[in-house]
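Could someone model adenosine-5'-diphosphate with this protein?
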Amino acid sequence: MKNLGRAIRQALRQRFTIIGIILSSLVVAFFWGANIGAVYPFVEVVVQNKSMHDWARERVAESEKASAVAKQKIHELEQQQDGTENAQSLNNKKNEIDALRLRIEAEQKVIATTKSLQPYIERYLPNDAFQTLVLIASFLVVGTIIKNLFLVANMLLVQRFSEMTTLELRNQVFAHTMKMGLGVFNKNRTGDLMSRFTGDIAAIGSTIAFLFGRALREPLKAAVCLLGALWVSWQLMLFSFMVAPLALILTYVLAKSIKRANRRSMEESSQFFRRLLQSFSGIAAVKANTMEKYECNRFRRTTREIYRKSMKIMFYHSLTKFSDEVLGMVVVSISILAGGYLVLNQETHLFGLAMTTRPMNLASLLMFYGFLIGASDPLRKLSGFVNTAQSGAAAADRIYPLLDRKPAIIEKENPIPAKNLAQPIVFDGVNFHYDKKEPVLRDINLKILCGETLAIVGPNGCGKTTLVNLIPRFYDPVDGEVRLGRSPFYDLCIQDLRRRIGIVTQQTILFDDTVLNNIRYGSPRATDEEVFAAAKKAYAHDFIMQKLEHGYDTNVGESGGRLSGGQKQRLSLARIILRDPQIMILDEATSQIDPESEQLIHKVLEKFIKDRTTFIITHRLSTLSLADRILVMNEGQIIDVGSHEELASRCELYQKLYQVSFKESA
Ligand code: ADP
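Reply:
Sure, complex below.
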């Protein structure tokens, strides 16, 4: 609930909207009660073929008569006192006289209020039963129109309130995830993130819409009716609501179960997203290993779980409906029995308890019932309250911890601007691990001179990518330091640093946008001419102009799906050339592409990396020839550093790698 509270506080910043919501809810509630109140004049006046004028006169006369009778009775009782009675009977008599006095007081009150109303009734209301009926009907129609106009306004305001909250929350969570380290975006977690963005935030939105819509409006409507019922007879009302505490306890118990069931169901649906994403993105592997059946079975198990969880939620949900309705009916039955008894017998007491001071008439009782029904309908509409609030609470419990998570990479306060990266890069005793149990980099000591090209080779999983990922500070070393000249990377401004580093990875990242905008990504201020020049340098201009339908304005499709591997690589090289970085990182950039593209890319790199500090992770001999030095890694450690010839003659691991992969690609 704490996290849902944060969502609500965030929503409440829209002050004017919430004021509008409260005001419109109040108007709706008032007219709801007022329409029910119209039962009274209908039963008391119109049905008995009276006008309001007659009603007022008769009411005064009746009360005066009742008052006189009571006075007479008091007089008689006082006369009867002859001193021979016992204490018990004296006490009884005293109580009776007290009750009669109260009755007289009540009758006097009725006389006074009716008399004060009389001049207005006579001046403004018709002196005819049918015309009074017309007036009541008109009031009902106009009241309903006003009520519904405000209801429309209320619903629109509530929708705006919740939409603005989800919009803001989505933007906020997105901005926050953009700040998070790469670890958050592992394949497994992307599905989970996506389900948080869609399902969870939407659930918070609907909970807020419910809390400030129905959950505000309906109780107000109920409150107006309950006030009305209290006004008719508060004692009868309390008596009818004897079972309310039981209802509260039941609701509380069910609420807890619903929250638990909701949380499990959300976990299940994020698992569902994860499975989907894994199966779709790994579809090639699924097919190659003929695992379709296995995947289908696994997926079936997940959907089955979702089904079971949904059924469980529905079960609790229907239980709340069941208990609400049964208990509601118990309340109504108690009040029908009690009220009926009082009116039929013209009694004021029930089991010795005073329910009213003067006997109720049928109109008051019907109005009382009207108010009870008027209160029960809104309360019935709230039966989904617990369920909705709990699902919102569970969703908020998944969203806010995400917002609270500190990014793994934090920029120091007052970082040093890193405007010039043309300095040596030093790894000094660097150790790193993702998981404490598995060291990934061990005691790395290395100095790369400014403008030098360093190739990194080693078996898969030995830590090459991790090593180069420390340079743009995608991760920080666990131990030791990476320095630019004399400044630790930790002290540098991250944005400055990343802006001046160009990274080409195996997976080229293109966005669903035009070729022009894809090249310009990261250098928003570059002119079209600069983009063309960069594309020319990357040998991309020709294929863009000749092979793509709309040239630079061609949309590359999602993830550049319409381009070949080599073309994508050249576009991403053009993007980097345009940014003109001082440090280049190429991570197996030339794998899986056609020989023509490979040759072209080789030519681009040859020129482009000349004056830049460059790290190349590769298995290809042709690319290795670009390097000034080659670093051999194994199991997170540096085994050797040297030229191709040196390593080929002295490093056993290099010889092995050379035999296995370099030759293949050479
Ligand atoms: P290489 O580039 O040499 O193939 P990597 O640097 O990618 O090696 O990986 C080194 C080790 O770290 C591997 O065992 C890999 O499974 C692990 N690893 C890589 N990235 C992550 C990550 N984000 N979270 C946890 N472990 C990782």
